[in-house]
Design brief:
157 residues, mainly alpha, globular
Length: 157
């Protein structure tokens, strides 16, 4: 792979959904008071940050650290699983209040748009190779939109 295929701009755009996710996870984690949720969120954040670092290294140094590019597919599901466990084991009253707030307008609209974006990401993951620059731009645009919707939905709860 040539160094100039992945640009610093792509890596920075890739950082947006990671930052949006982290902000939403912090807000939810503080409301849930769940250490397990936070651990899962940290794992997800680190997985996303690793992918951003992979793209930065490609763009700046031409280095392809394969583990950084591939680890997302393992760490992200593990982190999300811990987040779900944390949410399910959180204090019942807080979890119910958050769930109730999540299904109210306008939050529910934001979350519906996020789900549509995340489903589109599944199609992108199956269609594009992780080294496909054009595919990465498409995926990161969709991902930034979806994670922005999640963050907005959480903030509106």
């Amino acid at each position: 792979m040539e160094k100039d295929q992945f640009t610093v701009q792509l890596a920075l755009v890739d950082a947006l959904p990671v930052l949006f996710f982290a902000a939403a996870a912090v807000v939810l984690g503080l409301k849930l008071h769940s250490a397990v949720f936070f651990i899962g969120a940290i794992i997800c954040f680190l997985a996303g940050a690793g992918k951003v670092l992979w793209k930065l290294l490609l763009a700046l140094k031409g280095m392809d650290v394969a583990l950084l590019g591939a680890q997302l597919r393992v760490l992200m599901p593990a982190g999300f699983l811990l987040m779900v466990v944390g949410a399910c084991t959180a204090e019942r009253a807080q979890a119910h209040a958050l769930l109730h707030a999540a299904v109210q307008m306008p939050s529910v609209l934001c979350f519906a748009l996020a789900v549509i974006g995340l489903v589109a990401m599944i199609f992108c993951a199956r269609k594009f190779d992780r080294r496909d620059v054009r595919g990465n731009w498409i995926e990161q645009g969709i991902n930034a939109f979806a994670q922005g919707c999640v963050l907005l939905g959480v903030l509106l709860m």
